[in-house]
Amino acid sequence: MDYTSYLMIGNVAVWLGVGGYILFLSSRQRRYELRLKQMEQLRDEC
Questions:
Q1: 5, 24, 31, 41: which could form a disulfide with 1 (CB 3.0–4.6 Å)?
Q2: 1-46 per-position pLDDT tens digit
């Protein structure tokens, strides 16, 4: 393999990592939004 193949593999690996991290952050954000709605409903019931 020449250096361009390694460069391409590295580039793909980095973008897969970035995409995975974005998916991870979006799932955490959805969980926090759901938890916030639950807390707001509990506050409104009191």
A1: 5
A2: 899 999 999 999 999 999 999 999 999 999 999 999 999 999 998 7
* Residues 6 or more apart whose Cβ sits within 8 Å of residue 3: none
Query: Could you give the CA distance from residue 9 to residue 14 in angstroms, rounded to a whole number?
Result: 9
Whole-angstrom distance, CA of residue 46 vs CA of residue 29: 26
**Interior angle at CA 31, CA 44 and CA 26, nearest 5:** 135
Say what the pLDDT of residue 19 is. 99
Rounded to an integer, what distance in angstroms lies between the CA atom of residue 34 and that of residue 14? 31
